[in-house]
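2024-03-11 09:14:02 INFO receiving multi-entity request
2024-03-11 09:14:02 INFO entity count = two
2024-03-11 09:14:03 INFO echoing inputs for audit
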Amino acid sequence: MSKDLSLLQPELVMMVIVALMILAEMARRPLVVLWLGLSGLAVATGLSLPLLGADASVFGGTYRIDLLSTWAKLILLPGTALSLVLARAELAGKMREGSVYSLLVLVTLGALMLAGAGDMMLLVLGVVLTGLGSFALVAWPGDDRATEAAMKYLVFGAVTGAVMTYGLTFWFGGAGTTLFSALTKLQGGVVMVAGLVAVIVGLGYKAALVPFHFWAPDAYDGAPVSVAAYLSVITKIAALFALAQVLRDLSPQTGWPLVIALVAALTMTYGYLAALVQTNMVRLMAYSSVAQSGYFLLGIVAVGVNALSLQSLIVFGAAYVAMNLGVFAVVMVQGRQLDEFRGMGRSAPAMGVAMVILLLSLAGIPPLFGFVGKALLFAAAIDAGFTWLAVIAILNSVLSLAVYLRIMVPMYQPPAEGEAAVSGRPLSGLVIALTTAITLLSGVAVQLLLNAM
Amino acid sequence: MSPLALVLLPTLLAALLIAVLRRPPEILALVGVSISVPASGMLLTMAFAGKGYTLMMPGLPGMPLLLVSDPLSAVLSVLVATVATLVMVHATGYMRKDGEKRRFFATMLMFVTAMQLLVLAGDWLTFLGAWELIGVSSYLLIGFWNRKPGVAGAATRAFLYTRSADLGLYLGVFVLIGAAGTSNIAATLTTFGTPALIGGLLLLLAAMGKSAQVPMQDWLQRAMAGPTPVSALLHSATLVAAGAILLIRVAPMLPAQTLVAVGIVGGVTTVVAGLVALAERDLKRLLAASTSAQYGLMLLAIGAGAPVVALLHLIAHAAIKSGLFLGAGVFQHSRGSTGFEDLAGAGREHPRIFAGFAISALALAGIPPLAGFFSKDAIIAATLAAPGGIWMAVLALAGTVLTGAYMARALALLWRGAPQKGESGDELQWMGLGMGVLVALAAGLGAAFPRMEWLLGDAPPVSVLAMFLGLGASLLGLALGWLVPGARLLGPLLPWARRGFAVGGGMDGMVLRPALAMAQACNAVERRIYDAVLAVGRHAMRLGRGTRATDEAGIDGFIFGLASATEAAGRRARRLQSGLIHRELALTIAATGIIAAALLVAPLIY
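2024-03-11 09:21:47 INFO inference complete, emitting structure
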């Protein structure tokens, strides 16, 4: 038991910190909340480093401390810290800003649970914990748009959550235990299918896979930009890692890889096609992140078949956090409408260059970080026998370039008359600089990352 | 610190410091390039001692980034560092009154760093990266005076011409990596058979673009729009050299058929570009055409199976041509133009500069004991020694005659005419200093050639016949050029040469128009695809509506009940502005059903 607890140090630190943050928020000390959160995340990240290379599980196999969950900590915790900085840049001085910080950290705790889930109950718990915090985060501005978005998010979450819990009871009934590792006992059949559908629906909703993505554009658009950035990254990656945790124990003979591959193809294509017609940057990025989650599925399809799949998920996960947070940070500074980006490359040259780098990386242009992640994902899928899926993904990368060029090209055209220059904000500038540096340099140094695994 | 890093970092740091400190750019630039000279010199010394360096950095999985110092790269690195330093000294004077010299020196340093990176690259990925950096910085330098009319267009043209040929490099490198399974340049050179043939031809295409070979020779002359020190650097040891360096690097791998192609391209270029140079009415454009011609000679040597000879000529030409350009820069400074009409007699105003210019010109023509004599001699000997290479020897001799003719023509036009009294400031001293050292190199480098041949482990064939033929051709050319006006020499060819022998409409006709036509065709295809996608979309919508209709018809009471209950709950909780959520939920539920069905069917497929 004490060994279990020592393996859980990062989570325990997070729990204590969330409690302290809520207390500080009750005392209306937003800066204290912020610093508590940042230092807690830093400590938890530091405590996760010794876990690299560990392959264990705690509490009778219900919670896994393995490659995927440890790297989830190393990716999601710094990602949350960046989101906190973004939130501070956007919401400083507003009423109850501290509640946003504490909710962000709370949701991340749920995300960690998802990424390490080895048990159905923990999976449900993770979905609920991330869900409840996210609804409140989306509703935070309190205006009509935010409330409606949160409502939609909640209704969707309630329905898919119910479907998931209901389906998981079939697995429990069939296997006699809630552990995923016991699922090998099930030999296909209706019971197997019911549980699989449940997991795909529940986690597909959380990761915004097509056709469970409908809430995403509205929720992102209604929420503060920093919250949208957070939701598009942290909960999404947690859900996708959880999907990998569930599916790695199942035999491919059940046919799940084919279904996941179909969902992947649909998600990528639909996401980019929808993004192509948006004029609102937040909605555009929402659809773009829908499409990007389709790329993650390329790695999940190969899970259990080759070791490359987990590596590719982790590398692309890290790349995706950096790229997406960076782009959202630029959106936060520059404005929510696509028109507001016209001429930005001239009025704010440094930010323009950063944005171009981030977008090119999202499109998967070598030698940036996003390219390396996608190349590994393609390799994993091809190795698992899904060459057709890799071809669709590559074709979609072409489509994605069109999507991102729609942002980049106007940036270097003359601005419309009477545009006021946007005032720079040092905090968001910091996030943009950091994420751009990671995107630029890690593409070259990805070997170091792979060697660490 | 590895000496390899010591070669690259000073110039890079100097460029960054200029960007940050904003002054004094010329001192920072001079310090940066002059540190890289002893650093690369150390590489060469160690190469003589039989020691090489390798610096490995993490790159793509299985493809680390490599910097390698072997005899070939050490020689080239010293060359680049030396020429860059001397050009930078000259530029200190040339750019003295320019308001934007900060940008100039920073870009020049970036350019030099990229060239060193290319020379030292040990793997194809680094090579590609350096190649692209060279392209970008040369674009920035050619377009440096971007406020002058036509300059931005010339820079864009140069960039696009070389870019379209770069496609060959990308494809060629992919072929080589695919065949050898590694990105290490040395390891890919063992490629043989069809991959070597195809890869070699693709790399030849890239080299033709960068080294301005026929039919892609046109951009180089237009690139004269940049400041003269830029031309001096681009034409000698850097941009244009990249193409020849690429071919020298891969020469051991090239099969006989590819070598013939290289030889044909080089031979044709040396004659065609030589004729163009005879017809030029502008000093810098004449020198540019001569660059194409000399690189043609180098390709001819590679085609004859003597890459070391090509390298020697590259080195000699680098010293000679940068000296010539720096001289042209001085004349341009005093007359404000590079047209021969404006330059008539300019040689008499600056007799010492003219003397240096003349020595370089004679060196290029191949008069002993100047550097060009030895390298040109070796090229002719190599073509004579190559099996079935008699046609190559004829082309090389024709190129030599033409070289003598156009250099003598330039000297004659500069010398004949009345001098004008112009003021000369102290910037002339800086310009003269840089040029003086280069002229000395152009004169004396030939003495170092045997050492280099020994280092590179290849002794070129020696032939007395070649020496006499070469010297005779040079003297004939010089005499013709000095005595007979260029227009009369060309005779009926003159109008062709004036148009730069735009074969088949030149690049515009062969690349630009087909590319545009292809773009139109793609557009048409895409429009059709777009229509098809829209049709698919329409049918999908119809399908969706159909699903909804069946849902609402109550076939599935569960879905209907859930959807309508949710709708009612939503309405009660808050009047939603868009009533779409129930529709989307219905879609979600329908998709759930489809996934379940697919999962039931999927095991049958497996």
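2024-03-11 09:21:48 INFO post-check: Chain A touches chain B at residues 144, 147-148, 151-152, 155-156, 159-160, 163, 188, 190, 192-194, 196-197, 200-201, 211-212, 214, 252-256, 258-259, 262-263, 273, 367, 372, 375-376, 444-448, 450 (CB under 8 Å).
2024-03-11 09:21:48 INFO post-check: Chain A has a mean pLDDT of 89.
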